Predict the 3D structure of the following.
Amino acid sequence: MEWFTRMKVGTKLTAGFLAVAAIGALIGTTGILRSSEINDLADLMYEREVVGLSHAADANIQLIAAGRAIRNALLASTQEERRTHTESVQARLKAMHESLNKTGNFSVTEQGKALVAESQKAAKAYDDGIQSVLALLQTEELANTRASVTRIHEVRQLADKADELLGQIVERKRSNAKSLNDKTTEIYLQVRLILICLTIGGVVLGILIGVLLTRGLTRQLGGEPADVAGVAGAIAQGNLTFPIDTSRAAPGSVVAAMQTMQTSLREVVGTVRASSGNIAVGAPQIATGNADLSQRTEEQASNLEETAASMEELTSTVMSSADTAKQAAQLAQSASQAAQKGGEVVGQVVSMMGEINHSSQRIADIIGVIDGIAFQTNILALNAAVEAARAGEQGRGFAVVASEVRSLAQKSAEAAKGIKTLINDSVDKVANGSQLVNAAGTSMEDIVGQVQRVSHLIQEITSATQEQTSGISQINEAVMQLDQVTQQNAALVEESAAAADSLDQQVKQLVAAVGVFKLDEAAPLPSAPPAAAKAHAPLLRPREAPVHRSQPARALPHARAAAPRPAPARAVPRALPPKGSQEEWESF
């Protein structure tokens, strides 16, 4: 049952209620299902067996009534009486057949259907025999019915057979009804037994679950809820000597845990009392150490202030030289860039001159082509003039046109020659210009090289100056950081003094607060010595930013002295305490 003990209280209660509900649901479901089965069997017994039995009995009654009616017909003294009994026989036989047919409708087994079919055959044979007797009665006189009586004796055997078969049907239906009744009784007994067992089991299980839940809750609490509330109230009032009975509490219970908590609180309160006494003794020693530290910090701050002033002057001079060298480097860089741009422009001019020379040559080639075309046009015009002269009067107009074309061709040739002469002259000039531009490009490249070398030299000078500036800046920064650390130390000393006073007050409050708790063997608290005289030396204030003081009522805060400029955090060297207080100052 260990798993049950580890379960949560809510889970236990839910599981218990669900188990009881499941048992009730099982009992109800079983009763409903079995009652429904009993009801189905009762319906089946009535609809199939009882109704079928009534129809079979009715058929048997009609058979007997038909025999009685045929006998009355034989004994009738008048024709009217015979006719009445004959009609009664017909009606009885018809009712018998109808009852047999209805009996067949309520037979579901093959054996029952066969028995009904056999009964119907016997009834049909009996009906045929009766009909033959009735036919004889119609022909016989009232005083002479010997033939009919003889026939009646023959038909009686058929009636006996039909009666026997109907009796078997009735007996079978009665037997089936009894079987269904026995089955219903058996189901009832089973349901009663099951319900009794389930009820007893549910009661036992409910009692078992209740016992387990009660034991589990009591085990987890370790006692009565009132006892647990009393222990909690005593601890809340600060009574740590209240006796807790754990004789019946299991390990891990609430009562056992509260006893452990009481023991732990007793130890913690005792430790806090002893520690508060020690703190009360050490607070005046902290104040004395702060006074010594304040004096040494003031001397160190004065020396660092003079060093920082000298380093600032040196840094200013070096930075001025570095700025001048940087400006010279920028001017040299600008001159180098201008020379490079001039060289690039000259190179572009050389490239453009080459392209112009190439274009001039192409124009000369085109002019040569035009000159050739003009020459060929002149020859064609001359040939056309010759052909026109041969044609005589009819070719005169064509000769005029050919003459004009020849004139235009000659003018085109002369113009092409003039253009070619100009182009050749331009090509020669472009070639001379290209040579001059190439020479200028070479000179620009030499100038660019010289300017770049000068720029490199100035950059080296600038770099060296910047390194010197960086080194001096680092030295100056270190001095400034030392100065800041000194200022922070001064602020820390002042804050430590305020914190020591606040600590003394808080220790007194702590002793009073801890005194509320009642202990078995409370050690006497050490008497706190009077606070040391506040003979603090004047502290050096920061020159550029005030020191942020912490609230004296709070715990010892971290120093938050504002620095003149941002600087990375460095380890603050610990000042040496005066002789005679080495152990106390190192502890602080």
In short: Residues 522-588 have pLDDT under 50 and may be disordered. The domain at 2-217 is CATH 1.20.120.1730 (Four Helix Bundle (Hemerythrin (Met), subunit A)).
